[in-house]
Amino acid sequence: MVKKAVVLLSGGMDSATTLAIAKREGFEIYALSFDYGQRNFFEIKKAKRIAKFFEVKNHLLIPLRLNKIGGSALTSREIFLPKERGFGEIGKEIPSTYVPARNTIFLSYALAWAEVLRTGDIFIGVNIIDTSGYPDCRPGFISAFERMAHLATKAGVEGKLKFKIHTPLINLSKAGIIKKGLSLGVDYSLTHSCYDPLPDGKACGKCDSCRLRLKGFKEAGSKDPILYE
Amino acid sequence: MVKKAVVLLSGGMDSATTLAIAKREGFEIYALSFDYGQRNFFEIKKAKRIAKFFEVKNHLLIPLRLNKIGGSALTSREIFLPKERGFGEIGKEIPSTYVPARNTIFLSYALAWAEVLRTGDIFIGVNIIDTSGYPDCRPGFISAFERMAHLATKAGVEGKLKFKIHTPLINLSKAGIIKKGLSLGVDYSLTHSCYDPLPDGKACGKCDSCRLRLKGFKEAGSKDPILYE
Q1: pTM of the predicted model as reported, rounded to 2 decimal places
Q2: pLDDT at A66 over 90
Q3: Which of A92, A104, B86, B113 has the smallest count of CB within 10 Å of its CB?
Q4: What per-residue confidence (pLDDT) applies to A92?
Q5: ipTM of this model?
Q6: CB-based burial of residue A82 (10 Å sphere; 0-12 exposed, 13-18 middle, 19+ buried)?
Q7: Is residue B131 one of the residues assigned to a domain?
Q8: Hey, of B33, B92, B93, B108, which one would you mutate to test binding to chain A, going by the most A CBs within 10 A of its CB?
């Protein structure tokens, strides 16, 4: 019998690597992406290319309008997007790029789709090592969500599905993620990380996300195939 | 200091009553409604009227496109909407009107907005007595969500907000809800319950939701002010 998995796909390196891992584990992939009114429209284009590259079974793109709620530098033009902080600061405190309850919302949709597809397997590329320190990337959050999922759904309360939020990257360094992805054939030129790219799609090279990415490629002994400003 | 609360507002009786209770408790109301591609477009019009009636501070309407995910008679035309079941059956099993992970998605948005508004108070009109038996209306789900909320958010992990999902109707009968609402001045002619109303807005009187409503008004010794087919 075919094993299905819902995979959250942002267009970034981590979710592309997660998708490759789920595929290698034999899952039929149902990729789920969101247009949440983010600054970064390239993300969605990238997510579509990655889904095509990995020949996923289905790819849903859901508009979220998180900009109506605001509260983050990624969804509101009124909040300052930090750049050129010292490296020491990354991950020390939760930055303004934090989007309130973002992964809770993403996983809630994934849960809904998983139940409709009759699978309990959901993949998300969260990571606690080389990240900006978002709370909804941590193992405690993931297990609390998993527990809730069994009480939130018909298939959960009836015991027909066991929900598992797979987080294969959670304890990897960025370099470790890149090495893993390269071994699985991930084409990182299809991925995107910058919070604030130029109009031509080039990455800024300065935001937290670019800096973590560049550091990761360096430590992995590999060259980042995307273009920078 | 003003106390703010996010109140989930569907346009139905239960959420209108919940809003009235939150207002009576002294909260400034931030009403949150969703257009989730449901059959029932009247719900949204009703939600707007109720928000106006109670002079809420803000009313957000978020499009959700749950019809892209499907899996429910309320979001997909392909699933049969049950009618004229015996009363004994209501609540015995989870019906096809169950929308996968609906309250999880609703509460996730409410959580995001609450964090932006810097309040931990969220109201939802779930009920376990006179309902269709949905899992995401039960106390176990609500407390699991509350627990997760503290791990999912910046304000939660930093201990700056204590999230509380208020469920003032959870143990009331439909008649009890109606009596409570009438005592708080709820105008139930502004509310709507039917899963499948006529084009002119009249309720069908036959679906689970209509039947529970009519039974509630009867037991409360009051007359339902809305029009039926």
Answers
A1: 0.90
A2: no
A3: B86
A4: 55
A5: 0.88
A6: middle
A7: yes
A8: B108
A152 contacts in chain B (CB < 8 Å): 101, 103-104, 135-136, 141, 144-145
DSSP E strand boundaries for B70-207 = 121-123, 164-166
User: By the CB < 8 Å criterion, does B122 face chain A?
Assistant: no
B207 within domain boundaries: no
Closest CA to A193 of A130, A139, A107: A130
Domain annotation covers residue B125? yes
Report d(CA B75, CA B70) in Å as an integer. 6
Helix B13-24 to helix B174-183 angle (10° resolution) is 50
Instruction: Write out the residue range of the structural domain in which residue A75 sits.
Output: 3-219
- 3 state SS of A218: helix
DSSP string, A89-156: GTTTS--TT--TTHHHHHHHHHHHHHHHHT--EEE----SSSS---GGGSHHHHHHHHHHHHHHSHHH
- Structural domains of chain A, count: 1
User: Of B58, B46, B49, B95, which is closest to residue B74 (Cα–Cα)?
Assistant: B95
- CATH label of the domain that carries residue B77: 3.40.50.620
Contact A144, B156 (CB under 8 A): no
Whether B229 is in a domain gets the answer: no
What is residue B94's predicted lDDT score, i.e. its pLDDT?
72
Closest-CA residue of chain B to A35: B64
Cα separation values, B114 from A100, A170, A222, B7, B144, Å? 9, 28, 43, 10, 18
In DSSP notation, B88-124 reads GGTTTS--TT--TTHHHHHHHHHHHHHHHHT--EEE-
